[in-house]
Amino acid sequence: MSIPKSFDKKAAYELIDELLELVSPDAHIIDRRHMRQLMLTAALVAHDQPDRLNLKIMNRSLRELRRGFNTFAPWSDVQKIAVFGSARSPQGSVHFEMAAECAKGLVDAGFMVVTGAGPGVMEAANKGAGTENSFGVNIMLPFEQQANPYIEGDPKLVNFKYFFTRKVVFVKETDGVILLPGGFGTQDEGFETLTLVQTGKSDPRPIVMLEDKDSTYWDEWDRYCRSALLDRGLISPDDLNLYTIVNDPREAIQHVSHFYRNFHSIRYIDGELVIRMQHRPSARLIEQLNDEFKGIITRGSITEAEPHAFEAEEPGVLGLHRLRLAFDQKHLGRLRLLIDRLNDAVTDQQVETGPHFRPVHGVTPEAGLAEEDDD
N or C: which end of the chain has fewer CB within 10 A? Predict the structure, then answer.
């Protein structure tokens, strides 16, 4: 953070610390550090005297993020799947009914459902999930869209002015996405999620494209990705592993459930990737993984690991099993295949008797890189 010479940082921190003692006296020392930096940034904004539009954008953005995170916080230990698609799919249409069936099946499988809160596919998904198991992240537009009747007025509905704050919240707070055919907005949500996973800015997650068997929407999209992007060398062949196309809501639900059959979460610690799982992999499987995925490891091998002291701040993860590897942070499509292998190796009996899944949510910007230190 660049601080002007005319700005008295020491005096500002003294005032900030006094305020923090009033509003959050028991904050953890690490949280306190971030709070100080956040408030210092706000002070620097005032010092910069930006024009009114920039000031309104910064103010509104922070308020929207705060409201979004607070809305989801009471359900932080429940898996959530985003369902997006066209706001123009009418009631009774095949994709409307598929969205409703898919959302109901997700709830039956133990998930909650997040939609854009609008009409069409989003209304169908909120209807199928039921208000109790639904969230809405609504974007306020001049011509649309009013929240649909299945989420309107519910405390789990958040209204956003900016698309970017809405995306941050929806990606951070969900564990996967199911997309039905839609327009620019659906494509935007799909490519945004793919980009974040492809670049390691978001944890691996299931990304499912769902359409009726007589539809060609996602097949045409897939052909475009292969011919316009892959054939030109603009994406890697491994990137095609990041999504799957299905024609039945039950397949979509099965794909999402299978992704979390064993896999729990990842974390970068001391420059290495830690994969956390509910069930311990066999020595034979680890040997096979080292042979199959050696191309994504920069040094050493895939090994079992014990919980790290850094993980003590994360409730519910200390009892999980771990694999540790020096991941190159480039081949995210191959990492997805590694996760699939870990999930495939788990038996139905292990799933039935295994620990209850308690997810770790979150976008992971600058994964594995040191945080900027402003102190």
Answer: C
